Amino acid sequence: MVADLLLEAAGLMLIGMVTVFTFLFVLVLLLQLMSKVIQRYFPVKVVEKSHKIEDSNNGVSPAIIAAISAAVHQYRQKQ
């Protein structure tokens, strides 16, 4: 009785594991196929980098830097 139940449980476990493994294997294959199709029909366009050199302050205007510095200085004096 117990042996029969254990054999049936092992059989169900084996069927479940094979089903999950097969599903994951098919999923990986379909994702690879989809990736190849997308790369073939919709290639990634390469954009050339701009040769423009940015300022060392990353484009922040000196007026904004001065305003922030003044605000920090005023805040520290109030404490």
Automatic annotation (TrEMBL):
InterPro entries: Na_pump_deCOase, OadG
Location in or out of the cell: Cell membrane
Name of a matching Pfam family: OAD_gamma
Reactions that this protein is recorded to catalyse: oxaloacetate + 2 Na(+)(in) + H(+) = pyruvate + 2 Na(+)(out) + CO2
EC numbers, comma separated: 7.2.4.2
Known cofactor(s): Na(+)
Domain of life according to the entry: Bacteria
Keyword entries, A-Z: Cell membrane, Ion transport, Membrane, Sodium, Sodium transport, Translocase, Transmembrane, Transmembrane helix, Transport
Annotated signal sequence range: none
Transmembrane segments: 12-31
Membrane topology per record: Single-pass membrane protein
Broad enzyme group: translocase
Main localization of the protein described in the UniProt heading: membrane
Family, as annotated: Belongs to the OadG family.
Function description: Catalyzes the decarboxylation of oxaloacetate coupled to Na(+) translocation.
Subunit description: Heterotrimer of an alpha, a beta and a gamma subunit.
Protein name per UniProt: Probable oxaloacetate decarboxylase gamma chain
Gene source species: Alishewanella longhuensis
Gene name, Swiss-Prot/TrEMBL: oadG
